[in-house]
Amino acid sequence: MKIKYLISVLLLTCGIGQTSAAVPPLKGKQAKNVGLASEQIKRMVDDIEKTGKILSPRTTDKNGKTVYVVLEEWTSGFFPGSLWYLYELTGDEAWKNYGIKYTEGMERIKKYTGNHDIGFMIYCSFGNGYRLTKNPAYADVIVEAAKSLSTRFRPGAGIIQSWNANKSKDWICPVIIDNMMNLELLFEASKLSGDDSFRKIAVSHADQTLKNHYRKDNSCFHVVDYDPETGAIRHRQTAQGFSDSSSWSRGQAWGLYGYTMCFRYTQDKKYLQQAERIADFIFNHPRLPKDLIPYWDYDADKIPDEPRDVSAAAITASALYELYTYTQNKAYKKYADTILKNLSGETYTAAPGTNGNFVLMHSVGSIPHGAEVDRPLVYADYYYLEAIKRKHDIESGNGLKLTDF
Ligand code: GLY
């Protein structure tokens, strides 16, 4: 007994026989970047742990203090999601334990039907958690959440209604481009449950969005308002962009990520083509800065004196790594590498202990709402870590490990 015990201690000390979800060890710049991110996010975790509550960090106020939001906000899944990526990138079990705690702390959100954002909320948290732990209870949460999201499907128009009707805007059934991101939850829920209805909803939504959100130049509108019975288009507008006809940077990034992901699940070439067209729009845009970190809207009227949106850049980089794996177009990887390199420099990465303990600076929530202008945002950090993980997957020769169970 004693010998057996000693052998197992020895094996564990040597790292043999340990189960870990970690990627092969990071080296060089990426090790440094993840080290810095770990330091910052550990400070954030420590602050939250002191309160004894499950808090959801989102941004900072004008004094640089961390702002927390309720779990019903669309951003609540990104903090637990970042904890899961840190676990994967470092192999440190402490991150896994925090991932479990802050993921399970938001389980009630699986029943949320107030808008379409449950995909972001549950998939970034429970989706990553399931990918890394295979805890069957997490799969149940994902399927339950897909049922909640499906209540917003409007068969007459073939879309998921993003936001509720808004009288002051004369919107009956508004759909925003961001909604493409919520389809990942549906595709996975079909795989986990064998219920194809979720997947059918996702495909219908992606097809209608492709038809109705995109312009000839492959940029997209932010909001399309539908007649939910007939599918007739009532309005094409913006909520967070510069103008109805402008190209809001994060919206272009959501579309790029969304159509790349739709190709992953369907192998339908029209989604891949759309993703490539969106990439063409972004990377041939005359107002995309040389460092590839876009202004908050490609058509904002005071460029170059307009805020950048680091969140759009981080989402774009992560999407491009996946797009690269389907196309083998080296340009996509090069763009993504350039974005990551620039985000990791001192212009965009915060000094330790500053920036409300978020990793990246200089994102934009919504300029028309005067909200979160030139601030850190929790989702910029999440997609930054995801992009680092994807780059490492590709470069270590193990292939991209996506949330594709
Ligand atoms: N999904 C909301 C946003 O991108 O701001």
Structural class by sheet pairing and helices: mainly alpha
Number of helices: 13
The counted number of beta strands is 9
Q: Note the gap between the termini.
A: 39 Å
Task: Report the sheet-strand fraction.
Answer: 5-15%
Major β-sheet annotation = 3 strands, antiparallel
**Percent helix range:** 40-55%
What's the average pLDDT? 94
Provide the list of bound ligands, each named once.
Answer: glycine
Low-confidence stretches: 1-19
Radius of gyration: 21 Å
Largest beta sheet: strand ordering: 5-6-7
Overview in brief:
By secondary structure, the protein is mainly alpha-helical.
Description:
A hairpin with a 6-residue loop joins strand 6 and strand 7. The strands form 4 sheets. Strands 5-6-7 form a 3-stranded antiparallel β-sheet, with no helix packed on it. The two termini are 39 Å apart. With 405 residues, the protein is mainly alpha-helical. Helices cover 50% and strands 8% of the residues. The protein has helices spanning 2-13, 28-51, 78-90, 93-104, 118-133, 136-150, 183-193, 197-213, 249-266, 269-283, 310-327, 330-343, 378-395; strands at 56-60, 66-69, 153-154, 159-160, 174-176, 223-226, 233-237, 363-366, 371-375. The longest helix has 24 residues, at 28-51. The chain is globular. The chain has 13 helices and 9 strands. Bound molecules: glycine. Glycine binds at residues 74, 178, 240, 250. Residues 74, 178, 240, 250 line the site of glycine (GLY).
